[in-house]
Amino acid sequence: MNKVRDHFLEDEKDGVDSFMSIAGTSFGGDGQNMALGFGKLKDWKLRQRPDLKVKAIAGRAMKAFSQIKGARVFAFPPPPVIELGMAVGFDFQLQDRGGLGHEKLMAARNQLLGMAMKDPRLVRVRPNGMEDVAEYHIDVDWEKAGALGVSIATIHDTIGAAFGSDFVNNFIQAGRVKNVYVQADAPYRMLPKDLEKLYVRNSVGKMVPFSSFASCRWAQGSPKLERYNAFSSINIWGEPTPGHSTGEAMTAMEEIAAKLPQGIGFDWNGLSYQERMATAQGPILYAFSIFVIFLCVAALYESWTIPFVNLLMLPLGVLGAILATSLRGLPNDVYFQIGFLTTLGLSTKNAILIIQFIKERLRHGDNLIDATLGAVKTRFRPVIMTSLAFFFGVLPLAIATGAGAGAMNAIGTAVCGGMLSATFIDLIFIPIFFVLVSKIFMKKQKKQPTEYALVSTTPKEVR
């Protein structure tokens, strides 16, 4: 921890304000070989350079900490949503669903970590827990203990009182009530073999040597029992590589987990669980959005065929959003999806502005081609003006800096890219699609000549 502290306070002094370390505990458990540290970064105004951002500092720290031979040290930013996890990235639970045992679960964990290191979508995949340690097991022969008249409760109480302590009574001294605890003397509870010196009282009041019904052995085991949804589990943390989203990293972990032995399963925890639940609703949300667009346009035009022109415009706007996001190296996260949905509506807006005027010209007797070309020329300026106004209104989000700029950049970039493609590409394809759809689906309305009949009437004389 001294090396970690010195790295942040000396090598990263331009970006780190202070550092606090805690020995003996961590997110993975408590122990003499566990520790935890928190680095407080300086204010945003003092860290304008890209190399002073949190991800850059964490990346350099990981490179420096990898040279520490006596420990495994990981540096990572805090989670984006407080109380839903302890670190940025995903929260994965590897489970023993087939009752294979702890050794098979640890072997599956090591296999998973090995495959994760080779996956280009994953970085800093590490177990959030404690490694197996040496444990001293006491194996009691219950048949011998029963034959000697020794009960289970008596064995547990004797070991607990000798190596721990046990309250037995109170006594009064100088007018104060004090507690009495019993425990084996220090020289007789220092080593594991001191268990053989214990005697346990049986049911008839006689003392039975502990070694007569129990044996001891060393073994390797987990110092912390971890379960998730009632299954033995190992918690694993990780992050996506730059340019990939947590959703892609979670998909990569699911693909790796599918290659593990039968009986080994997985589940998601914390923010990853919430993300997976929300991701499952994504296709339904997109489908419902497109359905609502179709119904609104159908009600506007009072037609079931013309709205297909608007739906054909949607991929063109989405193409710009995806292209702009990819060029900036931004991930496909929830903020991008918000901009994605916004682009769907904006792509429809341009088609509405033009198609409405095409219908007006058709009502005045123009043919399909002339009405389409005339409407495009008439509405060219309004389409450009409204599109550019929205583009420049969203542009500050795409180029924003400072705290919270990541979310604004993702939304602004998607909307700006989608707005540009929906404007300049749609102006070409809207008339083309409208003419094609009209010729395929719309029936030609034949004008019937109006017939007039002259009727001559002679009123009768009323007498």
Describe this structure in words.
The protein has 463 residues and is an alpha+beta fold. Helix 9 runs antiparallel to helix 10 and helix 10 packs antiparallel against helix 11. The radius of gyration is 37 Å and the shape is elongated. The N and C termini lie far apart (126 Å). About 3% of the residues have low confidence.
CATH fold-level topology of the largest domain: Multidrug efflux transporter AcrB transmembrane fold
First CA to last CA: what distance? 126 Å
**How many alpha or pi helices?**
13
CA radius of gyration is 37 Å
CATH architecture of the largest domain: Up-down Bundle
Task: Report the sheet with the most strands, covering strand number, pairing sense and barrel closure.
Answer: 5 strands, antiparallel
**What is the count of β-strands?**
13
SSE ordering: HEEHEHEEHHEEEEEEEHEHHHHHHH
Low-pLDDT ranges: 444-457
What percentage of the residues does DSSP assign to strands (E)? 15-25%
Mean pLDDT: 85
Shape: elongated
Number of separate domains: 4
Proportion in helices: 40-55%
Decide which structural class fits the backbone.
alpha+beta
CATH superfamily of the largest domain: Multidrug efflux transporter AcrB transmembrane domain
